[in-house]
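Appendix B, record 7
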Amino acid sequence: MTFYEDEVPESLELNEVYTANQIGIYLNTHKRTVILTDFNHFAYDSNDLKFKIVNKIERYVHRYSDNDSYALSIPNKKSEVIEIKRIY
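Structure tokens (predicted):
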């Protein structure tokens, strides 16, 4: 994904509306962010799809290691968890 530096949102603010493209760029530059949505298809390059930030929290995200499916990766930092809802 290519983008200009001025296209990168510094943060995604609660109750604000963003395009899928803006959210995709944010995810690309903020690796510890997890997005939760009720929409099963997310075209990151779309400027037509719009989403509202409905919840934003910081939590430890536990997941299995990329290298070993039986090894649980213990997080050392909190991740930003953002819930979004599609705006029609």
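Remarks on this record: The radius of gyration is 14 Å. Strands lie at 17-19, 33-37, 50-59, 63-64, 72-73, 79-87.
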